[in-house]
Amino acid sequence: MNVYGDPQQRGYQYGAQAALQIRHSIASYARQFAYRCGLTWHQSQTLAEGSLPWLERHTPQLLEEIQGIATGSGFTFSEILALNLRTEILARAVSGGSHPHYAAAVEHNRQAGVPQHPPDPVPEFKEIDEIDESNSSQAHPDWGECTTLAALPQVTATQHTYLAQTWDWVGAQRSACLVLRIHAPDHPPCLTLTEAGILAKIGLNQAGLAVTLNLLRSQQDGQTQSGGMPVHLLLRLLLQCETWQQALERVKSYPYTASSCVSLASASGQLISFELSPQGIGLHHPQRGLLVHTNHFLDPTLQVHELPPYVGSSTRQRLERASYLLHQSAQRGSLNAVALQEILRDRTNAPRCICRHPDPHLPAVDRTETVAAVVMDLNQQILHLAPGLPDQVEFVPIPIQP
């Protein structure tokens, strides 16, 4: 999907082309906000609106684009805003499983005519692995766990910079994924894999910068909704940067109300992960030209405020496994886009593995899997996308310029 022009024009084109997928996103997040937080869709929009005074001061052009998406799609501004603040709204939940007000919130949404998913949609995958009951994640729902990998030119076979990740989330949201090319008069062209209605997620731009996202959780997450930068808006702002220094300054200039890890890389050979939280920002630097991040804090100061990973979390196993595979490939001199794709397909230690299949024992609303996988070559300016379980689909190369 390509969008052009000023913020209102780009937003309108986006909304008009993706209206059905935006409807799917609303159904997904209305259900998630009810399930995890006990919030109705109306309450979720009200929470998002609470951030407007801060956003109007700091991101007026992004709000114009959100208004354009709303106009083009036929949904309201508040609905599109709530999608873009989905991480910050979900941060209000403090435990896994369903919220006590889940059923009431779902019924309220139904009566209000909010888009709905079928009660238990059929999972979008080809086959289900045999489940080892002693090692299953069943009865331990998670929050979505992504694995980020990166490599700098001095350790890659091509002397290119690569940034890659699996995006793990509820499988039903795969139908709302889209690839968006953004052409604007005031910033470099950029390409992002995102969820319909959301301004950006994983992506790269023509200035040679790229970003990925991992979920983190800390004790102060979600305690305020009005005074910080939503992470999906931050990702879009980073994709609009012309230089590495501009991107660094942009990350460090805002407070955050929900925890996450944003990894930033450049074609010129710079790389860092920012651990963002209400307590501050932690930095995770590459080691010998390589970087791996999963879903727990690595900064010692921020670890003090971390919520412990849920029972059954695979974040530490995936960090260890991905680090091993990445270093092994670098030592062989074979580290390139194809090698990174193979790492993202890895099923060792299943179900606590990099390429995550859905657990059929869990309800669909909690059935997390690898929705998509991405390998970005920053020098060739190509995003290689696996639009499904990466061990079952091929990676498709998508250039910034069509």
Structure, briefly:
This protein has helices at 7-17, 19-37, 41-49, 52-58, 60-73, 77-84, 86-90, 102-111, 231-239, 244-252, 300-303, 315-332, 337-344, and strands at residues 2-4, 147-151, 162-170, 177-184, 187-195, 202-205, 209-215, 260-266, 271-277, 280-284, 290-293, 368-377, 382-386, 396-399. The protein is of the alpha+beta class.
Structural features:
eight-stranded mixed sheet; Arc Repressor Mutant, subunit A; Penicillin V Acylase, Chain A; 402 residues; alpha+beta; 14 strands; 2 domains
Describe what you observe in this structure.
With 402 residues, the protein is an alpha+beta fold. The protein folds into two domains: 2-111, Arc Repressor Mutant, subunit A, CATH 1.10.10.2120; 137-399, Penicillin V Acylase, Chain A. It has helices spanning 7-17, 19-37, 41-49, 52-58, 60-73, 77-84, 86-90, 102-111, 231-239, 244-252, 300-303, 315-332, 337-344; strands spanning 2-4, 147-151, 162-170, 177-184, 187-195, 202-205, 209-215, 260-266, 271-277, 280-284, 290-293, 368-377, 382-386, 396-399. The strands form two sheets. An eight-stranded mixed sheet has the order 1-4-5-6-7-8-9-10. Strands 11-2-3-12-13-14 form a six-stranded antiparallel sheet, covered by helices on one side.
Q: Secondary-structure blueprint of this entry?
A:
Blueprint: E1 2-4, H1 7-17, H2 19-37, H3 41-49, H4 52-58, H5 60-73, H6 77-84, H7 86-90, H8 102-111, E2 147-151, E3 162-170, E4 177-184, E5 187-195, E6 202-205, E7 209-215, H9 231-239, H10 244-252, E8 260-266, E9 271-277, E10 280-284, E11 290-293, H11 300-303, H12 315-332, H13 337-344, E12 368-377, E13 382-386, E14 396-399
Helix pairs in contact: 1-5, 2-8, 3-6, 5-6, 9-10, 12-13
